Amino acid sequence: MKVTISVIKADIGGYVGHSNMHPKLIEMAQESLDAARADGMIIDYYVAYCGDDLSLIMTHTRGEDNADIHKLAWDIFLRCTEVAKKLKLYGAGQDLLSDAFSGNVKGMGPGCAEMEIEERKSEPIIIFMADKTSPGAWNLPLYRMFADPFNTAGLVIDPSMHDGFKFEVLDVIENKVIVLSCPEEMYDLLVFVGASARYMIKSVYRKTDDEVAARASVQRLNLIAGRYVGKDDPVLIVRAQSGFPAVGEVLEPFAFPHLVEGWMRGSHHGPFMPVSFEQATPTRFDGPPRVIAAGFQLADGRLIGPVDMFKDVSFDYARQKALEVTEYIRRHGPFEPHRLSLEEMEYTTLPAVLEKLKDRFKVAE
Ligand code: F6R
Ligand code: MG
Ligand code: MG
Question: Which among 46, 109, 316, 331 could disulfide-bond with 57, CB atoms 3.0 to 4.6 Å apart, if both were Cys?
Answer without folding.
Answer: 46
